[in-house]
Amino acid sequence: MGLKITLKPKERMIIGGAVITNGDSKCDLIIENKVPLLREKNILKEEEANTPGRRIYFVIQLMYIDEENLTTHHKAYWDLVSSFIQAAPSALEMIKQISDHIVSNRYYMALKLAGKLIEYEQEVIKSV
What we know:
By secondary structure, the chain is of the alpha+beta class. The chain contains four helices and five strands.
C-alpha cells in the first residue's frame, strides 16, 4: 500500500513538481510510488524566504521538487550556507548535518533539518 494523504478543502500540495489544489471537500490521495511531495504547511513561498535560514530552506525545497535545475540550486545552497556560517558560526554542526543529506540526495531530510535551522535562527535573533 502507498502513502495515504488526506487533504483538507482548498489545501495545496506539491507532488512531483506539480502544484495540486484540493476542491471544496476533504480528499484522500494514495501515492503509490516514490515521488517528491510537500504539503502546504511545509511549502515556503519565494517571497517568504526573507531571512538567511529561510533562503536556505527555500533552495533545498527547490532541490527536492525541481530536479532539472539541481546544479543551479546546489550552487545557491553552498553560497548561502557559506554566508550563514560566517554570520553564525554556532550553526556549523547543524549546517554540516543538512549538507550531509544534500550530498547524499536526501533532500526531504535536509528540508526537515532546515526547518530546525530557521527555528535556531529565530532564537539567535531574539537573543541579540
